[in-house]
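Hi F.,

I've been meaning to write this up properly since the lab meeting, where we talked about keeping a consistent format for the predictions we share between groups. The idea is simple: the sequence comes first, exactly as it goes in, then the structure tokens exactly as they come out, then a line or two of notes. No screenshots and no reformatting. I'm using this chain as the first example so we have something concrete to point to.
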Amino acid sequence: MSSDSELPKTSSEPLASGRTARTVPDRPSPEPEWVEFRAEQVADSWRELFWELFHYRELLWQMILRDIRIRYKQAVMGFGWALLMPILVVGSGFVVKYVLAQTAGAALETQAVAGMAVKALAWTFFAGALGFATNSLTNNIHLVTKIYFPREVFPLSAVLVQAFDTSIGALLVLVAVVALPGVGLSWTGLWALPLVLLLMAFTTALALVLSCANVFFRDVKYIAQLLITFGIFFTPVFYETEMLGPTGS
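Output, unedited:
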């Protein structure tokens, strides 16, 4: 048997009745367990997410149709707003380009107008998708708390609905841009497809993050509005690299 010196020490405190209360001996706290995430685990989680979204694809489709109907419900112009918003953004960019060209005493090049129109369409999609996706979970909290389904359906639906809206206006704007003198179709236009896919992937990822964060911190929707309102001035939509001087060129 072990000696008394090897036993855990206990302490006793006198009580009012004269008896003593023995305290539980001190035990060393367990060491923290570190969780290690491997690349295979991350890949499995993404694969599971995609499979679950595919399983609920009918629900996603119904959400998209519902959001489209709600967006233009009781609107006098209806789908005309899908055409008007890109036209307004491109038109405002054209005015800025024209004023800058007149101030510098230079002619307004059609290539600059065409590039600005394409970039404005991309920003219109990005800003609109984030604006609707950030509040997608909080606006449907009555469904989130009652029925089980992938919560990613709501922000993903907002992104796809905005892609539908932007594509309607983009067709009209791109037809007008191609009709400009000195601008035409070329094989370099095939780069638009991978760039659009990258833009949609980045927008979807950011929409998922903001929509989840907005559930816990309602300040996120105001931060998103600030990003949408002033972010266009920090992106190369209305300016070219030549405006930065030798560093940009």
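Notes:
The two ends are 84 Å apart (CA to CA).
The chain has a mean pLDDT of 76.

If this format works for you, I'll send the rest the same way.

G.
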